[in-house]
Design goal:
single chain; 136 residues; mainly alpha; 8 helices
């Protein structure tokens, strides 16, 4: 997978999550919204890899996680993104909703409110995905 693949996947998973929410499939909507953020962060990490360069071992190891806070640390733009969180309270609140998502959520039950909150935090105009798009 390359950066463009991760970008497309992030957008596709967000659209899938929105469709699931609309059809009251809250568990899947919640999971895929978080997965969209994971893909977006991995697009940022992929951007750090230069063509024909041998990838940095630690960065490669760090990219193979699903933990959003760890992925953000390895994007190379963490400082800038966190500054945006500090400058924009709404964005910081959205990150607060999103950051604790985990791949294990696919095994959990999520209600309407939790799924709706997650979709809003990810896909809103001041959502986490809009912020990450500025850096990928």
């Amino acid at each position: 997978m390359n950066r463009k693949d991760f970008q497309r996947l992030a957008e596709t998973r967000l659209a899938d999550a929105q469709a699931l929410l609309k059809n009251r499939r809250y568990d899947g909507a919640y999971y895929l919204a978080g997965y969209a953020v994971e893909c977006a962060l991995k697009a940022c990490i992929a951007k750090r890899t230069k063509r024909y360069d041998f990838p940095d071992r630690e960065l490669t190891k760090a990219a193979y996680t699903h933990k959003l806070t760890d992925l953000l640390k390895n994007t190379g733009v963490s400082e800038a993104v966190q500054q945006e969180f500090r400058d924009e309270p709404a964005l910081d609140g959205n990150w607060g909703v999103v950051k604790d998502w985990s791949e294990e959520s696919r095994y959990e039950t999520h209600g309407r409110k939790k799924a709706r909150d997650m979709l809003r935090a990810v896909g809103h105009q001041q959502g986490v995905l809009a912020c990450i798009r500025r850096y990928w």
